[in-house]
């Protein structure tokens, strides 16, 4: 199965160089493995604007409605430099599919970054995104953005990879400017899209049918907008159960009563968070192989990203929101 090669901007301290404020490097196994299947672009905004390694603490300070990046020990405001670097960096880099940024960093953190009332105060008045991350959200509102810490959660990691590789593949489809390529993309992603949203699956299907005979460029633009809406949040467990039941329907005449019961038991265990989804889909895929069902074997639902990236290990955080 063909997978597009996504471009992912990664905080440089996550395995690329010892550029953390204290001179450390963080060896991240997920980033290392992803590098085999994606184009990784490392960046350390703080080093890029002239802050050394190691360096004195920088922090976010709220001035009115504006966040400023300041270095209290030097009584220095680096806001202007950071904004200029972010603008220049994004102007030059081209297409970007995703970001993996360092958590809690005053520049790269995407949430829970401490914001202070003034440079010398110890009182945190709010939490939010870092200054560089603010530019990420402004310039790439549809990109796949995560912190390295959250990606230790299996459900968050699954959603990140699914969205990342799906949107990268659609970028290739869009470049072809071909309705035939769009039809194939939609067909291969039918059950993956169903897991995310049946409503959006139907709307995207109507776009592909193109009964209004719209120009292909317009269809692709509208389809892309719909994909971003569909991937806005991870699917629920009940949605995956529904998809697996649909897939079971292809083999209703071939499965024995005991075999059907076994798959239903697996689904029950998955619903109860006792098994990963792959425990169910691997059985269903084996049936597609046995029955030589080429339509199902082409479904991205079984492998939305390179299987070598599959890792069911979970940090244990966020289990209640896991898919």
TrEMBL record:
Signal sequence, renumbered to the chain: none
PANTHER family: INNER MEMBRANE PROTEIN
Highest taxon above the source species: Bacteria
Protein name: Cytoplasmic protein
InterPro entries linked to this entry: 2-thiour_desulf, DUF1722, UCP037004
